[in-house]
Structure formats: C-alpha cells, structure tokens
TrEMBL record:
<dbReference type="GO" id="GO:0008146">
    <property type="term" value="F:sulfotransferase activity"/>
</dbReference>
<dbReference type="GO" id="GO:0005737">
    <property type="term" value="C:cytoplasm"/>
</dbReference>
<feature type="domain" description="Sulfotransferase">
    <location>
        <begin position="1"/>
        <end position="113"/>
    </location>
</feature>
<dbReference type="InterPro" id="IPR027417">
    <property type="entry name" value="P-loop_NTPase"/>
</dbReference>
<protein>
    <recommendedName>
        <fullName>Sulfotransferase</fullName>
        <ecNumber>2.8.2.-</ecNumber>
    </recommendedName>
</protein>
<dbReference type="Pfam" id="PF00685">
    <property type="entry name" value="Sulfotransfer_1"/>
</dbReference>
<comment type="similarity">
    <text>Belongs to the sulfotransferase 1 family.</text>
</comment>
<dbReference type="GO" id="GO:0051923">
    <property type="term" value="P:sulfation"/>
</dbReference>
<keyword id="KW-0808">Transferase</keyword>
<dbReference type="InterPro" id="IPR000863">
    <property type="entry name" value="Sulfotransferase_dom"/>
</dbReference>
Length: 119
C-alpha cells in the first residue's frame, strides 16, 4: 500500500521537522507546478502559530466560506445517509447555492467531456 502511486503518506513528525519539504511532497504528488517562493509561502501560512493567529475580517470571511463549502460538500456528496436518488440536491441547495454550484461545475468541467445527470 505504501508504494501505491495514488496514496501519499506524510507523518506529523516529519511535517513538524521540515514543513517546506512536506509541502513539496504534496505539490509533487498532486503534479502541481509551484515555484520555491510559493511553496515557502504555503509552508509559512500552514504553521500552527500562523493558523491560530486571529485573522482580519476579510480573511475570516473567506475561511468561513471555504468551511461552509466543505461542509456542504460533505453533506451532499459524502454522507452515507443521503436518500440516494437523482435530483435530491434540490432538497439540500438554496437557489443561490445551486447557481454557485452551476458556475463552479461549468468552470471545472468545461472541455472534459464529463457530464452528470442532475435530474
């Protein structure tokens, strides 16, 4: 399992010792091209001390939005207790959330040929 190319193993202790190397490992695993400056910025922003610092209102609002999106994703896609029928999303999404998802879907899946039946 450890040699599976679809899995990345990182240990907390190794990240504590050398966070920039852990970020590089993640970047390599995800096949993302980032320069050293960006990797350093990500590592710095990911330290425990920086993450627990009080954020200004704009950053807090942005993080709250990301947290809401993650929660919605978990509730909608990952919950084992869903009804499991096509179109159930209408019971979960507000009209605004539906519009936001449609925009995201169009952006992320454009040109892929991947389609889903939502109804």
């Amino acid at each position: 399992m450890r040699d599976d190319p679809n899995l990345l193993f990182l240990k907390y202790e190794d990240m504590k010792k050398d966070l920039p190397s852990a970020v590089k490992a993640i970047v390599t695993f995800l096949e993302v091209d980032l320069d050293e400056s960006t990797i350093k910025s990500i590592a710095e922003a990911s330290t425990f001390n920086n993450m627990k610092v009080d954020l200004d209102n704009s950053k807090m609002a942005e993080r709250q939005l990301i947290a809401r999106k993650a929660l919605l994703y978990i509730r909608f896609f990952a919950s084992p207790y869903r009804h499991c029928y096509v179109g159930d999303w209408k019971n979960m999404f507000t009209p605004e959330q539906s519009e936001a998802f449609d925009a995201w879907y169009e952006e992320k899946f454009a040109g892929t040929g991947i389609t889903f039946d939502f109804e």
